[in-house]
Amino acid sequence: MQSVDDPIRNLIDELKRLPSVGEKTAQRFAYFIVALNDKNARKMANAIVEVKEKVKVCTICYNFTNLNPCKICSDTKRENGVVCVVEDPRDLMALEKSAVFKGRYHVLHGVISPIKGIGPDELRIDELKRRVEGGKINEIIIATNPTKEGEATAHLIQERLGNTNIKLTRIARGIPAGGDLEYFDSQTLTAAIMNRKDL
Amino acid sequence: MQSVDDPIRNLIDELKRLPSVGEKTAQRFAYFIVALNDKNARKMANAIVEVKEKVKVCTICYNFTNLNPCKICSDTKRENGVVCVVEDPRDLMALEKSAVFKGRYHVLHGVISPIKGIGPDELRIDELKRRVEGGKINEIIIATNPTKEGEATAHLIQERLGNTNIKLTRIARGIPAGGDLEYFDSQTLTAAIMNRKDL
After folding, report:
1. Domain A76-180+186-192 part of CATH 3.40.1360.10
2. Which fold has domain B7-54?
3. How many CA atoms lie within 13 A of B11 on its CB side?
4. I want to staple A14 with a disulfide (CB 3.0 to 4.6 A). Which of A24, A168, B47, B72 is the partner?
5. What is the mean pLDDT of chain A?
6. Is any Cβ of chain B less than 8 angstroms from the Cβ of A55?
7. How far apart are CA B94 and CA B165, in angstroms?
8. CB distance B31–A66 less than 8 Å?
9. A-chain residues within 8 Å CB-CB of B15?
10. What is the pLDDT of residues A181-193, one digit of tens each?
11. What pLDDT, in 10s, does the model give residues B165-194?
């Protein structure tokens, strides 16, 4: 048995904190790091420290950022009238990669989940309401995932913003590009048929 | 697009160096790290730096270690007469976990692989020969994996140590515990039948 002052054992244990990383994967990572040269290992360690030192939450959209307001919120070339509400920063990142959306964002940092004990107050919904009340916004695209929790969150946002004069929209459901009909559930297929488009 | 001075982007890129970690997994890891508290993030970063600062190779068995000779080589309670030759430190770690082996080790740091350009000189075979010539060793268990490369490496070791008076053994092939015959190749099944044991 190896003692706790064993640096490899310690690194394996630290890496096991990462999501879905078990003992075997952590071992592979740890021995990979042992084999890195000093400079590259230090770069990796610094990247972890830096992200903690520099990354905060944008006080407008609540995305993670090292600038405040974040790059997107301070970009004068983007539309002010449309705000896309997403569950988390990774969803925002995916949308940015597709480059389809040129408005502003609002990051909820989660969805309603009674199991995880996440209620409306844990999300940034009040902050969204305040942005809306500040004027300038014409449309809010609710882009939470089409899961049970995502839908419940979308409904809640609809409720909370219901008395405002704003246009609320929801991202479309359907068959994703490259998808095969036989692998999708009937809810998705129903949406794909109901929301069919003229050719 | 995010610029290179974006700490999250930088961390994602650093984490993508890890084996079998692509963009999506690196993103999950990075946002997990962003959500860690400062202390835990720093512990993870320090574990990386420390492993590089403290971990060297044992000058007897060539396992990674922060002590020289390593704990196993300097353990007076272990048998000196038997040396188990393994491909890499993770194989050694697996054997130690099983606690079946109480002798010494020799870590090759790889196997012969023409594709990866790894020949006999890249492995610690000469070092093994020198250990053998130093006397005291009665048996060498060649525990390279039963893959093409592992077998080739086992043969090479056999060749190089052939003129010594030492007993060379090879780990047994067969069906692993919990295994189902239908999922194993005929080479494995042949070994399982040929090496059958009296009950």
Report:
1. yes
2. Helicase, Ruva Protein; domain 3 (1.10.8)
3. 26
4. B47
5. 90
6. yes
7. 29
8. no
9. 44, 47
10. 888 888 888 888 8
11. 889 999 988 888 888 888 888 888 888 888
